Please model this.
Amino acid sequence: MDKPNIIWIGSPNFSSPMGYKIIAIVNHIMSGTLIGTDSWFKNPVSKVSSHFGVGKNGDIHQYVNLDNHAWANGMVKNPNWPLLQDGVNPNYYTVSIEHEGESGDVMSEVQYQATLALHRWLIGTLGILVTRDNIIGHYRIDSVNRSNCPGTGFPWDRLFNDLQGGSDMLKVALLLYTKEDYWAGSDVAVKNGDCAIFVRPADHSIPAEAMNAKQLIVIGGPTTKHPNEVLLSGNNKYDTAAAVAKYLG
Model:
């Protein structure tokens, strides 16, 4: 995917690389203007930043180099994100995008096309998987103070439909029994063209989007009884790892 036109603004507020792989894009709402955000992120007193900002006019601004960690997602309060790594600052394995406007605003078409192009470029550049656990809103990390970020106006369904090539049905999906299976699962996903990855929630139910995929690859846990299931599971984690290794060849 071609890199969209990005205007470098820069911010002094970032951390140096910590050695973690970027696994997710976190979307935010500015609750303000692009110009105001430029100024705030350039101010060292603010101690906040994001990697990118997308304006209502379609301009894309960059504040932090992708090799560094922006200060956008660090506070964790009552999260609902299965890929959250215990004890690790979420800034270390996420890339952040701010959007001009207020919570609840409906994006202009030019702003939507700009953020779509940015998402596509980041997905291709960083190898981020196109799932609802790899492309999230800030509220998934902090549901207490950021419950309206990026807000009800964010076009989640349209974005995923466009990122998945306009198809409402996934060709292949990967279902993990727990988030600890993620790294083995990511190798299986890569083998299947960076297919969507889902993690079973605490009640071990099966996400509807995963069950509706044409083929479902299951790592760990019992069968889902999906009509076209590939079960990579065993009596323990070692058997499961062996099944994954055999599948990967």
User: Anything to note?
Assistant: The mean pLDDT is 91. The longest strand covers residues 24-29. The CA atoms of residues 12 and 44 lie 6 Å apart.
